[in-house]
Amino acid sequence: MVRKALFALGLLLCSSLAAAATRPNLVLITLDSSRADRMGFLGAKSGITPNLDRLAGESLVFEHAYAQAPATVASHATIFSGGYPQSTAMSELGGTLPASLPYLPDLLKAQGYRTAAFVGSIQLDPRNGLAQGFDRGFQGYDASFHPAIPGDTRAALAERPADQVVGRALAWLARNPQGPFFVWIHINDPHAPNASYNAAIAAADAAIGKLLAALKQQKLYATTAVLVAADHGESLGAHGEDTHGIFLYDETIHVPLLLKLPEAQPTAKHVTAKVRLVDIAPTLLEVAAVPVPSQMQGQSLLRIAKSSSADQPVYSRSDLPQRGFGWSALESWRAGKYLYIRAPQPELYDLTADPGATRNLAQSSKATLDTMAAQLESFDRRLSGEGGKPSGAQLSSSEMQKLASLGYVGLQKPSGASTAATGTDPKDKIATANKTSEAARALAQGKADRAVAALTPLVAAESGLYLAEYTLGTALAQKGQHAEAVKHLHKAIELQPDSAWAHYQMGTSLLKTGDFKTAAVHLEIAAGRLSGFAAAHLSLAETYAHLGRAEDAKRERTKAK
After folding, report:
1. Predicted TM-score of the model (pTM)
2. Whole-number average pLDDT of the chain
């Protein structure tokens, strides 16, 4: 009996290994902030994407692909989970990917895939707290962005150019050529300003060309599926928005998406049906012959490409106006030729007649507006029934009590995924968002003086601006003005008490001022949420040491390793 059982187990293992050996390799390339209208394979005449254009000639090209969020972290969470933003609970301001959510790398790894990730931005470094969960299932997650060092450039500190990211991926492939593998490559180069945008797209394309050439040289190209998609686009001044994160127009939501299949699978063609980034995870699972979990909210692009039915409507959401500024969140619904945006001042556009979305038909086409609004409302209700929930990890009652004891009054509950378009319309405040974004870029470049000069009058004139208060507090701390920084970080935490980064910065500033007891409260919250962020544990260890809590300090230093 034992021999039979062992023999059966051996057959099962051999079968599993054989299945893994015959599965295709998978390469997922995500382009940050890359507009669809810059791609030659989608009609652009600039000639800056020759490598992607050649790849498109062998691929399924989805002409009308749309992001579910105009933001990096939220969008990548959707890509990897096959879930909408409400389900992933991730945003640019924090969150934790639910362990119960189906997760593409986990599913592939369980089927024998070796996994690796190579990212170009600290936003997607799993240690930074904004991308918790993204290292799940990855045997190698190549991030390791380091703290500021005198003389660092922004690229060395928070970003890597495309050629470096691809170079690291190629080095891994050279050491690990055996299949099957799943490699994710994130290219961060394309971003505002407009003057350098096309050059950044060209640099990304050149790096992708090197990757494709290497796959061919190593005789891996034929057995590898390559999916390229942007996480979102970039406004570049359209509709008054300088960058991205606020609005839901095509400049930030319409994205390039193509899929090169292994040679044995269907031939290339252009697909005109609307598709979504939420469809990527189920697609790659189908390519790999791995069952698609029923919890995934997208559907396989292969099935859409084969279908002759009408295209599906597309939902997108922007939480940053609400969580970052206290304004109304925005939701959009694309169906047929229309774009509907749910906002305090609702918007309706006929994108066939008005592709730039410059003529709002909300008043003149009331029947169409009502139909689109009803469809979006129905989708929201259905999504809520599937487990959609607010983004962000709310504080426990004990944590809230600790903050209240420190003088935090009127603590705001974290802004959830409300569908009601109430409050301030982001269209009326886009200049404030632009100023905050510009200040944040200056701070990231080590120009704290410029950030302070821009944000000080802004927060004096307007209240409730979490992102501005947090950025100003961080800039003041960078200048060594910790007592002043604490004032603005206090306001930021009252607005968003679940913000782990605000608690971390508050704790480190209080540590510098010598208020160790209060610093410990904030750093405990930060370290609990940024469990992979060594600096949070080290700062907490230093605080405990000042308080005479030697064993607690030792424990936190151990966690930092």
Report:
1. 0.90
2. 89
